[in-house]
TrEMBL record:
The protein's name in its UniProt record: Aspartyl/glutamyl-tRNA(Asn/Gln) amidotransferase subunit C
Assigned protein family: Belongs to the GatC family.
Gene: gatC
Enzyme Commission number(s) from the entry: 6.3.5.-
Keyword NADP on entry: no
Function: Allows the formation of correctly charged Asn-tRNA(Asn) or Gln-tRNA(Gln) through the transamidation of misacylated Asp-tRNA(Asn) or Glu-tRNA(Gln) in organisms which lack either or both of asparaginyl-tRNA or glutaminyl-tRNA synthetases. The reaction takes place in the presence of glutamine and ATP through an activated phospho-Asp-tRNA(Asn) or phospho-Glu-tRNA(Gln).
Length: 95
């Protein structure tokens, strides 16, 4: 498949990119280069290859999803500007 200047102009318009007329041949050439790379990739045999998310196998460490109080309420409340009875104290917003 080959891209000519008219097709390059149409693609630029669809992408809402302003391209001057004298730059259209270079843009068409770049599109043709990209399409050539895509054709090379289509020649690769990938039958039996499982998709992967990265080049090295990684396994995430998992832990039980358990709700806790953090076991450090004093340290957490030490950062609060105002704390009362083991909770953050905030100004009243609704009357």
């Amino acid at each position: 498949m080959s891209i000519d200047t008219d097709t390059a102009r149409r693609v630029a318009k669809l992408a809402r990119i302003r391209v001057e007329d004298e730059a259209l041949p270079a843009l068409a050439s770049e599109f043709n280069t990209i399409l050539g790379f895509i054709e090379q990739l289509q020649e690769v045999d990938v039958d039996g290859v499982e998709p992967m998310t990265g080049v090295t196998p990684m396994h995430l460490k998992r832990r039980d999803d358990v709700v806790t109080d953090g076991s450090q309420p004093e340290k957490v409340l030490a950062n609060a500007p105002d704390a009362r009875e083991g909770f953050f104290a905030v100004p009243k917003v609704v009357e």
